[in-house]
Design brief:
With about 70 residues, the chain is mostly helical. Helix content is about 90%, strand content about 0%. Keywords: Membrane, Transmembrane, Transmembrane helix.
Length: about 70
C-alpha cells in the first residue's frame, strides 16, 4: 500500500509539469507581443479560440471513441 503512493504522486505531477511550461511560454509570448505590436489583442483572441477549438476537438473525439 505504501509503495504505490509515490507512483500515484508522480502520475499526478506529470500533467502539472507539462501544462505549466506551456502556459508560461504563451504568457511570455502574449506579454512580448503586447509591447511590440498593436495586434496583440487579436493574437490573444486567436490563441483563446484555438485552445477552445482544440479542447472541443478532444472532447468530441473522445466521445466518439466511447460510443
Amino acid at each position: 500500500m505504501h509503495a504505490s503512493f509515490p507512483n500515484l504522486y508522480i502520475i499526478l505531477q506529470i500533467p502539472r509539469t507539462i501544462i505549466t511550461p506551456s502556459f508560461k511560454t504563451t504568457q511570455h509570448l502574449s506579454l512580448s507581443s503586447l509591447h511590440n505590436r498593436p495586434l496583440s489583442l487579436l493574437h490573444l483572441h486567436l490563441l483563446q479560440i484555438f485552445k477552445l477549438l482544440f479542447f472541443m476537438f478532444i472532447t468530441i473525439s473522445s466521445n466518439l471513441q466511447v460510443v
